[in-house]
Amino acid sequence: SNVAASSNSNAAVSSNSNAAGSSDSNATFSSDSNAAVSSISNATFSSDSNATYSSDSNAAFSSDSNSTVSSISNATVPSNSNATVSSRCPSEDATLPHYRESLTRGLG
User: Fold this and answer.
1) Spans of biased composition, class Basic and acidic residues (predicted)?
2) What residues contact residue 81 under an 8 Å CB cut-off, 6+ apart?
3) Which of 31, 89, 97, 108 could form a disulfide bond with 35, CB atoms 3.0-4.6 angstroms apart?
């Protein structure tokens, strides 16, 4: 309501008064691309992407990806790969000399 009202009054009205009225060569194609089109993309669409969508992607989605996903990849996964896997390797290295001793004693 704050974006759609002020972007329709600042973009569509002032680009039609600045563009179509004052300069049709500089403003119908330069402020229809800079005012009517790019102030619709700067006001209506990019303030929807900066307010509505990027506050959804910065709050809802990137707080899900920064807290849930990267705390799963930083906490769960490297603690499984650094703790579980590398604690299996020293335990297997510790049991291998016992197998060698039992094989040596069995063969000797």
Assistant:
1) 98-108
2) none
3) 31
